[in-house]
From TrEMBL:
Molecular functions (GO terms): hydrolase activity, acting on ester bonds
Keyword Hydrolase assigned: yes
InterPro entries assigned to the protein according to its UniProt record, in alphabetical order: GDSL, GDSL_Est/Lipase, SGNH_hydro_sf, SGNH_plant_lipase-like
Signal sequence extent: 1-26
PANTHER family with a match to the protein in the record: GDSL ESTERASE_LIPASE (PTHR45648:SF1), GDSL LIPASE/ACYLHYDROLASE FAMILY PROTEIN (AFU_ORTHOLOGUE AFUA_4G14700) (PTHR45648)
Family: Belongs to the 'GDSL' lipolytic enzyme family.
Organism: Lithospermum erythrorhizon
Name assigned to this protein: Lipase
Keywords attached to this entry: Hydrolase, Lipid degradation, Lipid metabolism, Signal
Domain of life of the source: Eukaryota
Example GO biological process: lipid catabolic process
Length: 373
């Protein structure tokens, strides 16, 4: 009897040590929380490096100010960190969210966040088709479904659910390509404008977005931050091809963005009411970027119309940034890095407002408050 009891106790002790060892190990990986990032080139962290696509930023001088890569290109469409990188860093997350398609996006790395974002992607499957391959939002959510199952395997279903609901932030930065690289395309047969009114097209976008956000909710996402579409009529590309003056923007793209943005705000209100226990934070990227463009001097920039890296026209807005581009000497004095994308300096200001700002730009709470819920 004595022997039996002591071996039972030994077994108990052994499994207790085993359990607590795993417990400590897991808590260590789970302590800092994670970002799961959905979106387009504004937040792509390198997924398009692994696709056959015309939308790539894997050449110099992209990434020149990205410290983690020693200034080498990573696939980010800017000179440094994206808005999503900065937010993750400020929230104390251990790594930048790893691109889903990267070979090292395996094992416990995924517990620190994954980026599904892809240059040229839109809410709609068809958007960005002129770039050939990209991961559209519905596919990004399919990919999260794969990650979701991997997290269950890594830490068990109970912990996984808790981790996703309480310690994970789900961000969406998408919609520009549905206009710039779909609805507004002039070529017959490529844009949806031929067959659809703006109202119908925006209806389709909102319905699809509702569907994708609901799918994420079904997979235990609870803390959402959703950005609206920026002033896409004011980017160097649009200003150059439309031959505008320094302070002018193209009307139609901005009008469509504002029309979509109003519907997006209503959608998030609706989802806050209908999806129990979820919080959808609305990020007014449009107003924030418009403020930077209009009052650029106040924020230490010297121009908000000319791209730092690129060529063509008065705003260097035709040819994308690459090894042969002319590059400005003071990269943190330009709102725009290239013909489409903000510079790291602009991203820092935008991220800071979303993290810590008030209801003018981020509501019903900021990202730090969302994180602390
Ligand atoms: C995964 O690989 C990417 C691209 O090479 C790299 O930037 C990143 O730091 C790696 N992430 C981790 C967690 O090792
Ligand atoms: C998008 O494409 C995928 C795969 O091609 C398909 O399964 C899905 O139903 C499409 N979604 C929409 C909203 O069109
Ligand atoms: C996730 O994938 C499974 C199949 O593996 C499917 O049954 C389920 O509906 C998917 N979930 C969502 C929300 O798409």
């Amino acid at each position: 009897m004595g022997i039996k009891t002591s071996s039972t106790i030994l077994l108990l002790i052994a499994s207790f040590i085993n359990l607590s060892f795993h417990g400590i190990c897991q808590d260590d990986d789970l302590a800092s929380g994670a970002s799961f990032i959905f979106g387009d080139s504004l937040v792509d962290a390198g997924n398009n490096n692994y696709l056959q696509t015309l939308s790539k930023a894997d050449v110099i001088p992209n990434g020149i100010d990205f410290e983690a890569s020693g200034g080498n290109p990573t696939g980010r469409f800017t000179n440094g960190r994206t808005i999503a990188d900065i937010v993750g860093e400020e929230l104390g997350q251990k790594y930048y969210a790893t691109p889903f398609l990267a070979p090292n996006c395996t094992g416990r790395v995924i517990l620190h966040g994954v980026s599904y974002a892809s240059g040229a992607a839109g809410v709609m499957n068809e958007s960005g088709r002129i770039f050939v391959n990209r991961i559209s939002l519905p596919i990004q959510v399919d990919y999260f479904n794969i990650t979701r199952k991997q997290i269950d395997k890594l830490i068990g279903p109970t912990k996984a659910r808790d981790y996703l609901m309480k310690k994970s932030i789900f961000s969406l930065t998408i919609g520009s390509n549905d206009f710039l690289n779909n609805y507004l395309l002039p070529l017959v047969g490529t844009g949806a404008r031929i067959s659809e009114s703006p109202d119908t097209f925006i209806d389709d976008m909102i319905n699809n977005l509702r569907k994708q956000l609901t799918r994420l909710y079904q997979m235990d996402a609870r803390k959402f931050i959703v950005g609206n579409v920026g002033p896409i009529g004011c980017i160097p590309y649009q200003k150059t091809i439309n031959n505008l003056k320094d302070t002018e923007c193209v009307d139609l793209p901005d009008k469509l963005a504002l029309q979509y943005n109003a519907r997006l705000k209503d959608l998030l209100t609706e989802l806050n009411e209908n999806l129990q226990g979820a919080t959808f934070v609305h990020a007014d990227v449009y107003s924030l970027v418009m403020e930077l463009i209009s009052n650029f001097r106040k924020y230490g920039f010297v121009t908000s119309s000319k791209a730092c890296c690129g060529n063509g026209g008065q705003f260097a807005g035709i040819i994308p940034c690459g090894p042969a581009s002319s590059v400005c000497s003071e990269r943190d004095k330009y709102v725009f890095w290239d013909n489409y994308h903000p510079s790291q300096a602009a991203n820092v200001i935008i991220a800071n407002q979303l993290l810590n700002g008030g209801p003018r730009y981020v509501s019903p709470m900021n990202i730090r408050q969302l994180n602390d819920l």
